Amino acid sequence: MSTAPPAAGTARLGRHTEPIVAIATAPGRGAVGIVRASGADLSTLIDALCGRRLVPRHATFGALLDAQGAAIDQGLALHFPAPHSYTGEDVLELQAHGGPVLLQLLLARCLEAGTGIGLRLAEPGEFTERAFLNDKLDLAQAEAVADLIDASTEAAARSAGRSLSGAFSAEISVLAERIVRLRMLVEATLDFPEEEIDFLEKAGARAQLRELEAAVDAVLARARQGALLREGLRVVLAGQPNVGKSSLLNALAGAELAIVTPIPGTTRDRVSETLQIEGVPLHVTDTAGLRHDVDAADEVERIGIGRSWEAIGQADAVIFLHDLTRRGQPAYDAAEREIEARLPPAAALLHVWNKADLAPGAAGLPGDALRLSARTGDGLEDLRRALLRHAGWQAAPEGLFIARTRHVLALRRTREHLLRAAEHADQRDAALDLLAEELRLAHQALGEITGAFSADDLLGEIFSRFCIGK
User: Is the N or the C terminus of the chain less surrounded, counting Cβ atoms within 10 Å?
Assistant: First the structure.
């Protein structure tokens, strides 16, 4: 007899048959708190906590009972029988007063009453994971649940709501259907070569591929916008000491976040703040001034400069701030060139000349140079618009959906496979088997977005980032 342990997927599936319970509201005090349970049959739990049958999908007010039949609290109980519930299983929601101790008492009572049915504490995201596994939500919609909770701007919240309602999934589904139709034609021709059908000509495969590529490009462009809305842009303020980086951070934030003095080297460590421009989150980091003569700095400043370079290496955009009042000084200009040579080529680089109020007549700058005064605020709007352009942001059209980096990457792979498929189709003696394989891979990459093709480890990674109770 084999003694090998069950496969990870089998063990994972087994856990999904166990009833679960958790506090579904945020930690801390509140007017109302919710304890939520989900499982195949929660009648035992309902009888123990409520002492009566509940009318499905109706709120019932009454005592929530302890093991001796005394009231823990007066509240509302709602029963959603399977399959008409969030998870697709029986769901019980107990709405009580929102005290942390009270909710812990209710949770402990649920676990006690549910011992016989194997009730356990839910893991992070497990309710939504069950909704996905029971076909209540696809994977993109399930992720939108977390994105809606985590949204840091109004635009992100609205876009996450549209994704949750299925707007993004619907576009992916249309693309998948078009790829499937093309796959069916190609594979049918492979199955019946004796028919000698000139497939590529009669079925218009080349035209269909071109149209598919254009459609994927359109969705990809919108997905990139949605990913930017969700994840924001990491912006680092870099430059020599005393060029006005901290003043610029304060000006962008509209608050005194960083200490500003005329003493070079005042900023010794990173200071970060999340702002928003047209609904796009910007995670702006002020860094210690960069010096070419690092050895001359003290130990604390050297550590700060090292952290500055680390932040620059992780940035999506770097604002290289210059001091117009020191421009033309040999030592200053030499240090500028040395710092620019070390900046990573991958990040978008914006050259910004500060202190325009003190050097209004500076000449010799490029015509499109960004000049501003962090002290007076002149030029800040131009900088904000430039940041959005460098991020690839376009004015958000109504109907934009939220997206994640993995969605963008999956769409890029889909496009790459369609391009390879088109190359095979354009050959004089088209290799239909290779064309069919590229279409299959394109279809698979697209399916990863909605979960049609998903590995267990991917699901575990996605849902582990949810809050408990959701």
Answer: N
